[in-house]
Amino acid sequence: EQELEQLKVKAASIEYALSALTTTERKIIELKFFERRRDVIIYEMELLMAPATFYKTLNNAMKTVKEILREEKLKSF
After folding, report:
1. Which of 13, 17, 74, 77 fits 68 for a cystine, CB–CB 3.0-4.6 Å?
2. 67 with 12: CB under 8 angstroms?
3. The whole model's pTM is what?
4. How far apart are CA 9 and CA 31, in angstroms?
5. Mean of per-residue pLDDT scores for the chain
6. Exposed, middle or buried by CB within 10 Å (0-12, 13-18, 19+), for 33?
7. What's the pLDDT tens digit per position in 11-36?
8. pLDDT band (50, 70, 90) for residue 2
9. Nearest C-alpha neighbor of 36 from the set 24, 44, 47, 28
């Protein structure tokens, strides 16, 4: 039961972090990590953006998620 509760807290924290992203950032994260799409497919076929724009947006999204999850982890202690 305790393990299940910890997983629920983690899932809620991830959802909270993802909600802080822009629509494009969230779409990139969903396609890359949840749908396991390759980068080139995402930026060339899904989002129609330049590779540099894709990677900059991905890096910004990852930084945001990391910061929020770090803050959430500190709150839980």
Report:
1. 17
2. no
3. 0.85
4. 23
5. 93
6. exposed
7. 999 999 999 999 999 999 999 999 99
8. confident
9. 28
